[in-house]
Amino acid sequence: MSGETNRLVQLGKDISGANTFAREMDVLTASGEQVSIALLSMALQRLGLSAKSMLGDQVAIKTDSAFGKARISHIETNALRAALEAGAIPVVAGFQGVDPNGDLTTLGRGGSDTSAVALAAALGADECEICTDVDGVYTADPRVVASARRLSQVTFEEMLELASLGSKVLHPRSVEFAGRYRVPLRVMSTFVDGDGTLITIENDNMEQPLVSGIAHARDEAKLTVAGVPDIPGIASKILGPVGRANVEVDMIVQNTGADGLTDFTFTVKREDYDRARDLLETVAKEIHAREINGDNTIAKVSIVGVGMRSHAGVATRMFDCLASENINIQMISTSEIKISVVVAEKYMELAVRALHSEFDLENS
Amino acid sequence: MSGETNRLVQLGKDISGANTFAREMDVLTASGEQVSIALLSMALQRLGLSAKSMLGDQVAIKTDSAFGKARISHIETNALRAALEAGAIPVVAGFQGVDPNGDLTTLGRGGSDTSAVALAAALGADECEICTDVDGVYTADPRVVASARRLSQVTFEEMLELASLGSKVLHPRSVEFAGRYRVPLRVMSTFVDGDGTLITIENDNMEQPLVSGIAHARDEAKLTVAGVPDIPGIASKILGPVGRANVEVDMIVQNTGADGLTDFTFTVKREDYDRARDLLETVAKEIHAREINGDNTIAKVSIVGVGMRSHAGVATRMFDCLASENINIQMISTSEIKISVVVAEKYMELAVRALHSEFDLENS
Q: Do A27 and B58 touch (CB under 8 A)?
C-alpha cells in the first residue's frame, strides 16, 4: 500500500485548490490505513489465525481536535483486551483517532509508528516491535560506510538524535513518545529474521561506547544574514517570517563581531532554500543588515552517543579527524549527546567514513 | 471515483484467496465512500458552502450484522439535524452503516442509493433526488429506440419492474425502499439541467397509460430440464443446487405434458450459463430427467405499466405485434403490471422498437 497516503493527499489538494479543509482531509487520508488493516486481517485469517481489524474510534484512540496533527490524549483498552482475551490479533489502524466531538482525526507524519507506541504504552506491553524495511539501526548508513555495524541497543536519546539527523528508521515523534512512556521499542525487518535494534532507557549494565553512530543529512542549505546590529529581538525578527512560512529551521549559529554587528546563520532543507532567501531579502532591509549569503550545497554530519556526556575531548577528536582529511567545517552545533558539523556536500561521504573509523565503530 | 469499490474488492479477493472474510471486506470497501464524502465536502467548501462529511457511524446509520449485505434498522437524525440547523450540508457516506457491536457494515450492491432513500425517509424529506449519469427514465432504451421519450412520472411498481428488467437507472432495492416508506424519488442528471423522472406512489390524477415503458435484458440464457417426473418437490430439487451456487434464477416456467412428465425451464444470466448447466447434469441423473437443453443466445423483452391492471387484451396486443414481425416467443412470464417474453437475442432490438410503436409510446 506504499504511496497510498500521498495519493489521497494529492486527490484532496486537487479538489481543495488553495484552501485547506483540515477536517475533510483527515476523513480522506484516514481511509488509507482502513484499507491496510482490512487487508492485513484477511491475510492473517487466511493463515488460520484469528484477527480483527479495529478503527481508531473502535479502539477508541482519543485525540484532541487538531486535524492533521492530532495528539493522542487517551487510549481505551477494553475493546483491545476483549479481542486479545478472545484469542484474536487486534489489527489497529494507526495514524488515526477520534476527537471529543466524534470527528475523525489523523496524527500527521510519523503517526503510524506513534500509534503503535501509544498502544503498547496503554496496554503496558513488554516491548513494541516496529517491523520496517531495514533490519535495525546502524552505526552509519551502510550505503556510505561498508563496515557499518547494526547496533543491538541504543538509548531513546541517541535514537532521537539519529532519527532527526537523517537515519530515517523511525519517526522522531514515536521515539519521543516511547521515551516519555518508557516503552522499549524494537526496530526490526519485515523481511528477514533477526533481533533488530532495541531502543531503551539507559542501563548501567549497558556498555556505553563513546560514540554510538554517525548520522548524516544531505540536501541541506545554509543562509547567513551578515552585518546585523547586535540588539535584543534580532533573532526573532529574522526567524519569525521564516517560521510563519512553515520553513523548518535546523541549526542556528550566531557570532558577534567587535563592531557591534553580528552574523546570523541557520540551515534549512534545500527545497526551502529559495523561499527562505526571498523572505530574508525583505527582512534584511528592515533590520539594516549588510548582506545575505547562502550556500545550497552543504551537508550535515553528526556523531551521536550518550557516552559523550562523561567524556571530554570527543569534539576535539572529531575536528582533528576532519582536519586531517582536509575537510573544512562551516558550522558547529552541539548538544549533550551529539556534535553536528556542516561541511561542503562533496565531502559528506568522506567525513562519515573517516569519523566511523576514528571512533572505531566497526569493531566496538 | 468510478471503479473504486471494484478495485478494493479485487484487493480483498487477492489477499483472501478462496476464503471470504466478510467483516474485513466491509472495513475495506467502506473506505471508498469515505474518500468520496471527504472530496465532495472539500469541493462544496471550495465553492463557499458549508459542508460536513459524516460516516455511517457518525450519523448513525444502524444496521444488522449481515456483513456485505446489511439491512438498515434505524437512522439517528440528531447529528444530521444539528448539521442542517448549523447551515451545513451533511455529506453522508452511503453504502455503509454500523451494527449493534460497533462493527462497520456495508449494504451491498445498490447500497448508496438505498442509503439516500433511507436518509430521506428518516428526515421526512419532501423528495429524494438521485443525480446520476442519465437524465431520467425512458419509455425504452434510447440507444435501441431513437424515439424513446423521457417519462415525467412513473410509479414505484413500474420503476421496480423497469429497473430489474435492465433499465439500470436505479437499483431495485432503493426503489423498493422508497416505495415502502413512500419517499418520492427523483432521478435526474448530474450533468444537464432538467426535471428528470419523478418516481412516486400511484396518483388518481396521473394519466395512466396502458404501457409506460419497454424494458429489455440482453445477456440472458435459458436452461430446460426435459422429461422430469411431475411429482411434488421436483422444482426445489432442480433449483436448490443452482441457488446454493449463487446463480440467480430469473424466469421460471413449468409445463406439464400428458405423460406425467414435465419440462422445467428457467433463465439465468449468460455468465452463469455454463456453471448452471454443469450443476444440472448432476441433478438430471438424480431425478431421472430425460435431457438438458439450453440456449445462451436469448434476450428478454418486457412491457411495463400500471395501466395493464385494468385493461384486458394487452398481452394479446403484445403477442400479435411480435408475430407480425415474425418473432418467435420462447417463454412468457407475467405479473400484474408486466409481461415478459424471451426471444432470440438477434430479434431483441426489433421487438423493442415494434412494441414501442405498437403502444404509441413516442407520443403518449
A: no
The alpha carbon of residue B23 is apart from the nearest alpha carbon of chain A, in Å, by 8
pLDDT digits (tens, 9 = 90+) for A124-146: 999 999 998 888 889 998 889 99
Q: Using pLDDT thresholds of 50, 70 and 90, give the confidence band for residue A11.
A: very high
CB proximity A323 to B under 8 Å: no
pLDDT score at A5: 86
Q: For cell 484477511, what's the residue? A: A42
Pair B70, B149 in one domain:
no
How close A48 gets to chain B, by Cα (Å)? 11
Closest chain B C-alpha to A85 CA, distance in angstroms: 17
The CB density around residue B309, as the number of other CB atoms within 10 Å, is: 12
What interface predicted TM-score (ipTM) does this complex get? 0.71
Is residue A67, in this structure, part of any structural domain at all?
yes
pLDDT tens digits, one per residue of B178-207: 988 999 999 999 999 999 999 988 765 555
Same domain, B28 and B165: no
Single out the residue in B108, B141, B171 at which a domain terminates. Answer: B108
Range B150-186 burial, b when 16+ CB lie within 10 A, else e = bbebbbbbbbbbbbbbbbebbbbbbbbbbbeeebbbb
Cβ–Cβ gap B23/A58 under 8 Å: no
Domain residue limits at A27? 1-108
Same domain, A281 and A176: no
The grid coordinates listed for B322 are 411480435
- At A85 the pLDDT is 96
Measured from the Cβ of residue A227, the count of other Cβ atoms closer than 10 Å reads: 17
- Shared domain check, A164 and A48: no
Identify the domain boundary among B145, B173, B206: B206
A260 grid coordinates: 557591534
A/B interface, count of CB pairs below 8 Å = 103
Cβ distance of B38 and A28 shorter than 8 Å? yes
The reply to whether residue A57 touches residue B57, judged by beta carbons under 8 angstroms, is yes
The reply to whether B119 falls in a domain is: no
pLDDT at position B167: 56
pLDDT in tens, B41-82: 999 999 999 999 999 999 999 999 999 999 999 999 999 999
